[in-house]
Amino acid sequence: MANSASLLRYASLPGLGWRRGTLVQGKNGRIKPNAVLYNGVEYMVEPENGHFQIRQYAKGRSIYTNCGTDVETAVARLSQLQAKATLLTAQRKLGVANERTQQLLTKLLDPFIEKYAHGSEDTMYAYRYTATSFVNLMTHRGTLISADINEDCVIAFDRWLEAQGNKKNTRATRYGYIRCFLRYCGLDPNVVITPEEHKKLKAKPKLAVETYSEDELLKLLTASSERHRLIWRTYKELGLREEELCFAFWCDVDFDHAVWQVRFKPKGSFWWNRALKWKSKDSEERDIPIPVGLLNELVALKKNADAKTPLVFPTRGGQADIKLLKALKSDWRDAGLNCGHCAGCLGKLNECSKAKIKTFRSTYLTTMSEYVALPSVQALAGHSDIKTTMRYLKPAAMDTLQKACNKAFAATA
Question: How do the domains of the chain map onto residue ranges?
């Protein structure tokens, strides 16, 4: 460790050979340049005999650094190391973990993105957007190095996200990425941010589960193009995550057994970007049964599919279609389903916030929960935690609950 650094003299001692000995301090407090203390015995050596070394420890091992034959230069080098060690120790206590805290945030941004922005398109975008926006805001505020980041900076970023229209759920997720960026910058988020503020920033409101009604789905499918109609139906009847459909290959569809297989895609799978790889959110592959009606439509689609791309629903250029949410909002608007009062409807793009691909998934899982046990619903969802599955399930309608209530307490009437 830096504070345990010490100065030694490496010299050839009479009758002993080359040895490392400690330095000897004179009565005037100054170091005797030609004296060496070894095993309690003081030896005098010639100036050209050996040299000074600084000894440090790293992972239980001694590390020696040569620093010449001039004692004043060696002492100055040691003082420099000790001062640096004292600074780093103080920084750790303040939440600073390493020398990156003294670097410009703009210099740390690209390496951070390079290290962490991997996986799905959504994940890569989230890391890039969050880190870039945070650094830009810090630069605007005059916070240029990571050592100057404090709790107020993180709170200010949360307020900035809110001003951009981000809901609390989204801001809580972005806060997780900020904590990752702080660690990369050499900071300890648990020290920078107080437990009380951390609890507020990470909190996600428990929103009511939304599902699509049969009337909404009928209007949506009627207003959509043939391609979009089949895509929306696939989401609704298989409960896929957005990217699980975008990156699905025809080889993932087992027509013989009527099964849609969610499978990971290694690097080299996508011709337009050989470095791109894909895996599902919870890193769980799974099989999903395909309803007969949907299976027949997929069979017909496969007969006319472009042989140049393995994707089930590619763009015209044969690549993964990662803009399906925008397409859904457009079809939703054309179907006359916009609510007219949410922030999306009142915005410039007139895109209703109720139109979400995630809602297809909630609709599917809620429907399946009426026919199979909860563990089976969890398996169909590809969730590693049953609690996650529960967040997708909408309670039974009030009339259903009323009938169940009447039946349960009929004997006591």
Answer: 2-93, 101-202, 214-218+238-327+354-390
Distances (CA, A) of 300 to 257, 297, 318, 347: 16, 5, 19, 39
Asked which of 78-87, 201-210, 336-345 is least confident by mean pLDDT, the reply is 78-87
E strand or H helix that includes residue 22: strand 17-25
Residue 375's nearest CA partner among 363, 389, 362, 392 is 389
By the 8 A CB rule, do 44 and 34 touch? Answer: yes
Burial label for 173, CB within 10 Å (0-12, 13-18, 19+), is: middle
CATH of 101-202, one of 3.40.50.920, 3.30.70.580, 3.40.50.1980, 1.10.150.130: 1.10.150.130
* Same fold? 101-202, 214-218+238-327+354-390: no
Cβ–Cβ < 8 Å for 324, 353: no
168-184 helix and 121-141 helix, angle to the nearest 10 degrees: 70
- CA–CA dist 239, 380 (Å, integer): 8
280 beta partners: none
Enter the pTM of the model: 0.60
Contact by Cβ (8 Å): 24, 35: yes
- Give pLDDT, residue 1: 39
Judged against a pLDDT cut of 80, whether residue 86 lies above it is answered with: no
Residue 152: φ, ψ to 5°: -60, -35
243-to-115, 145, 298, 391 alpha-carbon distances in Å: 22, 36, 18, 20
Which two tokens mark 123? 């994940």
Q: Using the 8-state DSSP alphabet, how is residue 259 labeled?
A: E
Q: Of 351, 230, 382, 357, which Cα lies nearest the Cα of 295?
A: 230
Q: If you classify domain 214-218+238-327+354-390 with CATH, what class do you get?
A: mainly alpha
- Note the Cα 289 to chain centre separation in Å: 31
d(CA 9, CA 14): 14
Q: For the chain, report the end-to-end CA distance as a whole number of angstroms.
A: 78
Q: What is the pLDDT of residues 292-322, one digit of tens each?
A: 999 999 999 999 998 889 999 999 999 999 8
